[in-house]
Amino acid sequence: MDLLLHQVLSGLATGGIYASMALALVMIYQATHEVNFAQGEMAMFATYLAWTLLQGGLPYWAAFFLTVVVSFVGGVVIERVIIRPVENAPVLSVVTVFIGLLVIFNSIAGWVFSYTIKPFPSPFPEQPFFGNSYMSSHEIGSMGITLLLLVLLFVFFRYTPLGLALRAAAQNPVSSRLVGVRVGWMLALGWGLAAAIGAVGGMMIAPVVFLEPNMMGGVLLYAFAGALLGGIDSPGGAVVGGFLVGVLENIVGAYLGTELKFTVALILIVTVLVIRPSGLFGKAQVSRV
Amino acid sequence: MAILSSSALSRQQVVGLVVLIAAACVLPLLLPNYRVFQLTMALAYAIAILGLNMLIGFNGQISLGHGAFYAIGAYVAAILMDKAGMPYWLTIPIAGGVCLVAGFLFGLPALRLEGLYLAIATLALGIAMPQILKHKALEHWTGGSQGLVIMKPDAPQWLHLSQDQWLYFFTLAWTVLLFFVAWNLLRGRIGRAMVAIRDQPTAARAMGVNAAMVKSMTFGVSAFYTGTAGALGAIGVQFVAPDSFGIFLSFTLFIGVVIGGLSSISGAVWGALFIQFIPNVADEISKAAPWAIYGVFLIAFMYVMPTGVAGFVRLVRARFRRGRVTQ
């Protein structure tokens, strides 16, 4: 029982990171109906950026916030320059561009920073908080940051005019444009936010999986699983889904071994898509013939 | 998208094909063994890309995980040769057959997935494959992370060819056969049904096309081609190991399809040459350079040449012909 509780709690910690990555995916999906396959590699690249800043002698939190800001700007630039031309192109063209981005980020990271594995520091103390024996302080800390991020996003989307404009642009671009919302910039803003959220996720997972160009492959897969389980068009659902797959991954890992980690994600993804493609909280898609 | 030429080849195309095949037969006699080996791999890639192109280009189902079927084909061939002592030529059709079944079975749940969702599911398959191959339960057969080493077949005595040359001609024969079959399949009734489902799914159904059957069959045939290529490639490399069939192999095949030209049979050859020989050039800059170049090419092609090299060739030929008429 103790083992199970331990696994659930540490699953919640990784789940928090999956939840933030899933949230980033859902943000882009809501705005553009595209799934960003390069999300994980963008986060990985941002983490390398943070690593470089830390090597340059910056204190952790300065590097953290600087990375988030740079990622935000990077996301906006990628949307304006690379994604804009294929905005109304068929799905295949968009997927192709994302795969192109993915391999570019991956190879440039390998080129510049080499493929050797690097340790990445955690901002939280080594001793567990309050001497508890269930969760390390990094697990508690990263979960706290994820939850804080969620609250901030909720407040932003719910209570600010800009958040409202973003939601409007995603839901009904034509009407939004008519009432004066600059839809193109809202999409770019959505990309910026997603990139920033991804960067936070990357910096939180890096102390666990270590820093290397392929570190996000598994994380992205679980983020997909989480987003699909919760419903790809539902931000709240993506968060719940992320936590759920985190817990599931840990329990399966504890009892069946971690060698089939990705296979579990594969089975989960296919099962969700076949049985309930709209996920737990998503709206079923109806198309007019 | 390409217009399917329903009629037989024009005389020009027949002459071109004969010259191409003749060149393909003479070339390995002039080149050093290492280059011959590279050409053999390019032929295997061409088969794999043709298979993936049927699925993505002609049928509109996006797969980002076809490396998994390539891996299955390679492993079936390797296991049959290593554990069952089967002759190499017999393993190729068996590997293809196993992949046909595997692809058909994966195609069944894929029926319910459209566009992006299928891309995600196949991506997961591609990422999960090396893990499955490494798993303890299969270790007795697959050799775990060590992989399997297989012997390169000798040429028949009376031919006086080196092993590499013989393997090249063996692969070339398979390539010609499979391209011929694909050409017939795609310009016929089934090919038209595949394209109809891609472009107008509702209308295709209304016309009596059994969409579910055609789609899962396409998945199966596509996996058959890719698996056959995997088996040929494994015999060429003489070695199979889980980590050589990672997700980046799937990306490589996908890149070959897009660069070569979607819904084009000749595109498969262009794509294969691209993914086989660009890394050779780029490797001299850095280990990571090929992928940076792939990525840049991929995005650039989507903007300026979405029909790939094959589409560009078609464009040049059309312009050339039009020029001649006006003169």
| Count of helical stretches of chain B | 14
Helix content of chain A: over 70%
Structural class assignment of chain A: mainly alpha
Order of helices and strands of chain B: HHHHHHEHHHHEHHHH
Radius of gyration of CA atoms of chain B, rounded to a whole number: 20 Å
Task: Report Rg of chain A.
Answer: 19 Å
Oligomer: heterodimer
Coarse morphology of chain A: globular
Walkthrough of the structure:
The complex is a heterodimer of chains A (289) and B (327). Chain A is built from eleven helices and no strands. Helix content of chain A is 74%, strand content 0%. Chain A is globular and about 55 Å long. Chain A has helices at residues 2-32, 39-55, 60-83, 91-113, 137-159, 161-171, 173-178, 183-209, 216-230, 235-256, 261-275. Chain A has 289 residues and is mainly alpha-helical. Chain B has 327 residues and is mainly α. Helix content of chain B is 75%, strand content 1%. Chain B has helices at 11-30, 33-58, 67-83, 88-110, 115-134, 139-142, 163-187, 189-199, 201-206, 211-237, 247-260, 265-282, 289-304, 308-326; strands at 148-149, 239-240. Chain B has a two-stranded antiparallel sheet. The chains are: A mainly alpha (289), B mainly alpha (327). Chains A and B meet through helix 4, helix 9 and helix 11 of A and helix 5, helix 11 and helix 13 of B.
